[in-house]
Amino acid sequence: MRIYVLSTLATIKGGVEARSPELRIAGHGRDEKQALESLRRGVSAWCEGLQRAGGLERVLEQRGLRHDGDGDELSVLVAASDGDIL
Question: What phi and psi, each to the nearest 5 degrees, are found at residue 38?
């Protein structure tokens, strides 16, 4: 299953924050790329827990996150609000 997450970016002390408003999860890094990768890892962990519990698709739909496919393998794609996909 592929999950698409749109994030907002903000400069913070010492780096950059990438935040998913729908999930209220944030990632941080020294630059935009590190922040987006941190967010992707956080969303992946969140999704894996929900998938094991059997409620991932339901929660994704409740939160309005775009996703496609099914199956066991998760792939999280994070895009900055300007459209760059990681």
Answer: -65, -45
